[in-house]
Structure formats: structure tokens, C-alpha cells
Design a protein that fits this description.
Undecaprenyl pyrophosphate synthetase; six-stranded parallel β-sheet; 8 helices; globular; binds 3-methylbut-3-enyl trihydrogen diphosphate; binds magnesium ion
């Protein structure tokens, strides 16, 4: 492990895995071929993450606005998610990955709901990497639901937030695919996150690309609204 890896120990990195469709179209393939290739990139990044000091990894797999896509694409994505959850569980256990899904579950096909429940149960003891998959996820919806919960009791509200919305603050948001926006992802948790945008399409994102993102993160100076060099403050 290098010094910068150690400095970054315990990072929460969140990735907006974008550019699958354009990646496929540029190769004369249907958009769904891009999603399939994207699943391989997910595997690569999960394997690489712990060595970079990443303790929590949140991956944006399907946004609540993605229901607006053509039905065949949505169906293909749901099938792919189910397959991914079913086939990756064993290697998650092997690697010490604890998988949790954030987002709404009630609108997902039952098969996907079951695959999520099974994967969460089977990987629950993992301690090397907390992997959070955001599926049917909308940050605005989560905040509205949390707020709607507020009048009950303070303890209950805190518990709700801990379970459903606010996990560790995000240190670094990576968006692949060239767009520079958050698309309703972790708006609360990313209040002081560093933002990193890369033109690399998600299916091409690999260990080296992750290393570059982490290196750039290490060069940033995070201040959280404070002044770091107090000797420079005029009296
Ligand atoms: C991201 O890739 C995957 C999902 C949103 C499910 P896109 O499908 O958005 O790919 P582009 O942005 O159209 O290239
Ligand atoms: C964000 O990508 C959602 C995921 C990567 C899962 P989109 O492709 O849906 O975002 P927009 O539409 O370009 O903002
Ligand atoms: Mg996109």
C-alpha cells in the first residue's frame, strides 16, 4: 500500500456509472450491449476498491427517472440486475463485500426483489467493503420520504435516516461518460464531496481510471467551510 492509499483509508466513493448506451452505439451495438459490458466494469471496480482505501462504494445502477426509458431497455436492465445479483454473490462473500441496495424496492419486478434480499442476506457478514447499489433510486424522493417521517419522533427519524438515507458522507463522486451533473444522486450525502468527471464511458472504466480519480482526489484540499491556515488570518 502506498502512502496516499493509507491517507485515503476509509473513503466513501460514489460512482455515477454513465455512458453505457453511447459506448455500445459507437460500436454499432444495441444500447443493452453497453449495459452488459458495464457489469464487467462493476466487477473490476469492486475488486480494486479496497486497495485504494475505499471502505464504502455506492454505485448508481438505475435511477427512478430511468423508468422513463423504452420498455425493452428497462426490462433488459432488470434482467441484468437480477443476473448480476445472483452470479456475483459468491465472489462478494469471498472478497468480504457486504452488499446493500438503496432506493425503492416496491416497483421492482419480484424476481429482482428476491435476488436483492438473498444477496443482502448472504453477504451480510462482509467487512472489507460496504457495497451499496442504488436501484430505483432518487435522492429527492429519499429526502421527501425522510422529511415525511419527521413528525413521528426524533429517535425514529434518526433511525429512519440511518437505515434508508444518510450513511457515511460521500468523499468522492465519480461520473463517467462525460456529463457533468448529479442526476438526483446522493444530494444530501455529497454536500462536501469532491466531484470528478471523466469522459471515459463506464464499460471502459478500469483500475487505472480509478487510480487516476483517487490521485486527483488526493490532490484536492478539503476545507468544509473552515480556514486551514489560521496563521494567514488578519487580526
Ligand atoms: C448508464 O448508461 C446506465 C444507466 C443509466 C442504467 P446510459 O444508459 O445512461 O448510457 P448513455 O448515457 O445513454 O450513454
Ligand atoms: C444517471 O444516468 C443514472 C445512472 C447512471 C444509473 P442517466 O443517463 O440516467 O442521467 P441523465 O439522464 O444523463 O441525467
Ligand atoms: Mg446516461
Amino acid at each position: 500500500m502506498t502512502q496516499s492509499d493509507l491517507k485515503n483509508d476509509g473513503l466513501h466513493v460514489a460512482i455515477i456509472m454513465d455512458g453505457n448506451g453511447r459506448w455500445a452505439q459507437a460500436r454499432g451495438k444495441p444500447r443493452t450491449a453497453g449495459h452488459l459490458a458495464g457489469a464487467t466494469a462493476v466487477r473490476r471496480v469492486i475488486e480494486s476498491a479496497p486497495a485504494f482505501g475505499i471502505r464504502t462504494l455506492t454505485l448508481y445502477a438505475f435511477s427512478s427517472d430511468n423508468w422513463k426509458r423504452p420498455r425493452p431497455e428497462v426490462s433488459a436492465l432488470m434482467r441484468l440486475l437480477e443476473r448480476y445479483l445472483r452470479t456475483e454473490t459468491a465472489s462478494c462473500v469471498e472478497q468480504g463485500v457486504c452488499l446493500r441496495v438503496i432506493g425503492r424496492r416496491d416497483r421492482l419486478p419480484e424476481r429482482v426483489q428476491r435476488a436483492i434480499a438473498d444477496a443482502e442476506q448472504t453477504t451480510a457478514a462482509g467487512t472489507t467493503l460496504q457495497l451499496r447499489l442504488a436501484i430505483d433510486y432518487s435522492s429527492r424522493d429519499e429526502l421527501v420520504r425522510a422529511a415525511a417521517h419527521a413528525p413521528q419522533s426524533r429517535d425514529e427519524f434518526a433511525q429512519w435516516l440511518a437505515q434508508h438515507t444518510v450513511q457515511a458522507d460521500v468523499d468522492l463522486v465519480i461520473r463517467t461518460g462525460g456529463e457533468q451533473r448529479l442526476s438526483d444522486f446522493l444530494l444530501w450525502e455529497s454536500a462536501y464531496a469532491e466531484l470528478y468527471f471523466t469522459p471515459i464511458a463506464w464499460p471502459d472504466f478500469d483500475r487505472r481510471a480509478l487510480a487516476e480519480a483517487i490521485a486527483e482526489f488526493s490532490r484536492r484540499q478539503r476545507r468544509f467551510g473552515a480556514v486551514l491556515d489560521t496563521t494567514a488570518v488578519a487580526s
